[in-house]
Design a protein that fits this description.
There is one protein chain. This protein is α/β, with parallel strands linked by helices and 432 residues long. The strands form 2 sheets. Strands 7, 8, 9, 10, 11, 12, 13, 14, 15, 16 and 17 form an 11-stranded mixed sheet that branches. A hairpin with a 6-residue loop joins strand 9 and strand 10. Helix 1 crosses helix 13. Keywords: Amino-acid biosynthesis, Methionine biosynthesis, NADP, Oxidoreductase, Sodium, Threonine biosynthesis.
């Protein structure tokens, strides 16, 4: 007997899910052990020409009735946003249906509640497509590395910002010009705020931290977030001079004592020999550093209808198999409870460019400020002379709060005309 699937949403991803279910019906049935059939599709408006050849009788505007129908076995949610997706998923779970979702925003905000409801109902909630499109990442972190201790997860999880920064690096283009190209190619929305200000990456970082460290305490609100709108051509040039490239990274990392985790999204200068530095265009990649497995990297297309639908179908096969076997994955049942520490406690390094007066003693005054805040300088160089004099300094690792205090003190020095640029520097984990 076929398993019936309720589909919530029929946009770019939803339509692709329907197409793949139809075109690969025989192969999917062989993998699952029974056929998968669309039992209904919830949309906002009926009568719209979707150009998909889907039977119009499948469409409905009553999503709640669809997900609670007795003949529905599985629910796929690709409408996005918090509501009505949250209410629909919880209703489906409470009705005994397993759910596949691509909704990063909802999981980042209410993932713990949804997983608890799924545990209580004995059903699955799978979400591979929520973090990095087609890249298999959720299950490797949740299952394959369950017996290991993950120290850090660091990744490019937003294709729009990676495209923009790649263009700035490769072509010397400015931020505005690169954003406009991304929009013309369909990589960026008309309103790119969620991408360029880091909101999209922050939601994904919260999900990654919960998976990597087995803690349900992390939400998007816990993620320190900075976007790329302030990245300048000068920052890109400084990175090049250091043998680095600028990337917007999501970084999830255990504290040195293992008692807490840090979760952040911000631009970084990354050495060009790091595997993530080679990720160009709109691609995504996630680099994992674990105690026993060592360094692992996952790479691929992070967005788009077909890649996202591929991840959705993979999850759909998994939850269908679990339903046939009368099993489920009880995610979050064994919560480590690790709290998120403030950004100020995160140990990192800074690259600081200062426009300074070109006279004796300036470097000594700058070095004194670093020393007063307990921050040591790794290297320093001067660029230009006279009115164009600039000091460029890179610190050793220190708490972010100490580094931020150092920068504020530098702004107040008479010898410093302006702090031209501040950016964090990342590499491989210490000792990793």
């Amino acid at each position: 007997m076929a398993m019936k699937v309720a589909l919530l949403g029929c946009g770019v991803v939803g339509a692709e899910v329907v197409r793949l279910l139809d075109e690969q019906a025989a192969e999917l049935a062989a993998r699952v052990g029974t056929s998968l059939e669309i039992g209904g599709i919830a949309v906002r408006r009926l009568g719209r020409d979707r150009g998909t050849g889907i039977d119009p009788a499948l469409f409905t505007t009553d999503a709640m009735a669809l997900v609670t129908r007795d003949d529905i076995d599985l629910v796929v949610e690709v409408i996005g946003g918090i509501e009505p997706a949250r209410s629909l998923i919880l209703a489906a779970v409470k009705s005994g249906k397993s759910v596949v979702t691509a909704n990063k925003a909802l999981l980042a905000e209410d993932g713990a509640v949804i997983h608890a409801a799924a545990r209580d109902a004995g059903v699955d909630v799978y979400y591979e497509a929520s973090v990095a499109g087609a890249i298999p990442l959720v299950r490797p972190l949740r299952d394959s590395l369950a017996g290991d201790r993950v120290h850090r997860v660091m990744g490019i999880v937003n294709g729009t910002t990676n495209f923009i920064l790649d263009r700035m690096d490769a072509l010397g283009a400015g931020f505005t010009e690169s954003l406009e190209e991304a929009q013309s190619l369909g990589y960026a929305e008309a309103d790119p705020t969620a991408d360029v200000e880091g909101f999209d990456a922050a939601a994904k970082a919260a999900i990654l931290a919960r998976l990597a460290f087995h803690t349900q305490k992390v939400t998007a609100a816990d993620v320190h977030r900075e976007g790329i709108t302030d990245v300048t051509a000068g920052d890109i040039a400084s990175a090049k001079a250091m043998g680095c490239v600028v990337k917007l990274l999501a970084i999830c990392q255990r504290s040195a004592d293992g008692a807490s985790v840090g979760v952040r999204v911000h631009p970084v200068m990354l050495p060009r020999e790091h595997p993530l530095a080679t990720v160009t265009e709109a691609y995504n990649a996630v680099f994992v550093e674990a105690e026993s497995a060592g360094r692992l990297m996952f790479y691929g297309a992070g967005a788009g209808g077909a890649p996202t639908a591929s991840a959705v179908l993979g999850d759909l096969v998994a939850v269908a198999r679990n339903r046939l076997a009368a099993t489920s994955v009880a995610e979050g049942a064994h919560d480590t409870g690790l709290p998120v520490h403030p950004m100020g406690q995160t140990v990192t390094r800074y690259h600081v460019a200062l426009d300074v007066a070109d006279r004796p003693g300036v470097l000594a005054r700058v070095a004194e400020v670093f020393a007063d805040n307990g921050v040591s300088i790794k290297n320093v160089r001067q660029e230009g002379f006279g009115d164009d004099a600039q000091l460029v300094l890179v610190s050793h690792q220190a708490p972010d709060a100490a580094l931020a205090a150092t920068v504020e003190r530098l702004r107040a020095l008479d010898e410093v005309r302006s702090v031209a640029s501040v950016m964090r520097v990342e590499a491989f984990a210490e000792g990793g």
